[in-house]
Amino acid sequence: MAGVNSCPRLMVVSDLDLTMVDHYDSENHSLLRFNALWEANYRHNSLLVFSTGRSPTIYKQLRKEKPLLSPDITVMSVGTEIAYGESLVPDNDWVEFLNQNWDRNMVTEEARKFPELIPQSETEQRPHKVSFYIEKDKADEVIKALSESLEKHGLDFKIIYSGGIALDVLPQGAGKGQALAYLLKRLKTEGKVPDNTLVCGDSGNDAELFSVPEVYGVMVSNAQEELLQWYADNAKNNPNIIHATERCAAGIIQAIGHFSLGPNTSPRDVPHFSECKPDNVNPGHEIVKFYLFYERWRCAEVEDTDPCMENLKVDYHPAGVFVHPSGVERSLHDCINAMRSCYGDKQGRKFRVWVDRVSPVQMSSDTWIVKFDKWELSGDERHCCITTVVLSSKGGDASDGFTWRHMHQTWLEGWGVKDHSNWLF
Ligand code: GLC
Ligand code: MG
């Protein structure tokens, strides 16, 4: 299974639409806060799982539109498809399990008898998911009648209503909750049970996540009526589930703090990094911190002072080299000087930087190779470089801070720039 080599410290299992992603926030403020928190503190020893109702087709679309991190595991199509890693390797055992007593044609045949059920687009019809739209006031009645007719045929199925509009028919063993239970069982066989699991959701198809044993749960503040109703009927006395006061990803961060699951201060919420606690210092944190400074520098959100830049230079080895994605080599100090002259060049414009898949490998007692994806959104253009950095600790260990010794970038396929001179690092 993709991800960590030992027991994950935290497994976050989150829905996407209106949970991880706030479609009402064009700045993606809380998503970027979550990203920085995750990459700085959790990526190296925890598991990120997205559990979405979306099919692979429209899940991939969302990833192009929004600054989403790469999850270790992706559960799609309302818990009917489980896939691992960046290349979405499907879990064929799960597919086989769902095939038991499932007859997709029969579901579509029976559903056709209800004119109130409007089929969703072709992309959302999947091998183990038949999806419709239906108005709220008609839903209860149709769900009851459709259930009766499918039962008569002896089919094992379940019907899930979400967002006050979407109706999914799935095999009985499917769904987000069952998919999570399956994943936890798999992790157990591999000796990798997470220390803690946090499930996060906003709508009806997320309800099952909250009934998986031994998980913490957060319903984000903007949760839908049907989820809140499910909670009132089934889980009101469960102290491990909260209804956050914050929307979407901010609600997830709130829950990490509420249940004391680990660090809950996003580097994006820290105005000056000298205030960072030493227990946060690790190579991932160093990378996040640098690129946040870089974003703020170009947006003129930090002060342009000599000590500021001189301090930064101290962290770069005088003999350090940067290999630009164009192939041109420069000294790291020259790059810092070039950055100096870009102060405020993105001020008042849309400019956001985030890192994904930060993966440090310790090479010796004081040296790390850190590989990650560096993303930059400038206006409506988005670019990404696969980046490798060699860091060494200044003193005896990581808590003394790091020196950057070498850096190398290549374009992530499909995300390069035409004009290389626009890319600093
Ligand atoms: C997503 C899917 C849709 C499904 C809905 C609720 O929006 O695209 O097919 O019905 O989630 O589960
Ligand atoms: Mg949702």
Automatic annotation (TrEMBL):
One Pfam family this sequence matches: S6PP_C
Protein name: Sucrose-phosphatase
Pathway listed: Glycan biosynthesis; sucrose biosynthesis; sucrose from D-fructose 6-phosphate and UDP-alpha-D-glucose: step 2/2
Source species: Vitis rotundifolia (Muscadine grape)
Enzyme class: hydrolase
Database matches in InterPro entries: HAD-like_sf, HAD-SF_hydro_IIB, HAD_sf, NTF2-like_dom_sf, SPP-like_dom, SPP_C, Sucrose_Phosphatase, Sucrose_phosphatase_pln/cyn
EC identifiers of the protein: 3.1.3.24
Cofactor(s) required for function per UniProt: Mg(2+)
General function of this protein: Catalyzes the final step of sucrose synthesis.
Residues in Sucrose phosphatase-like domain copies: 9-259
Catalysis: reaction(s): sucrose 6(F)-phosphate + H2O = sucrose + phosphate
Entry keywords, A to Z: Hydrolase, Magnesium
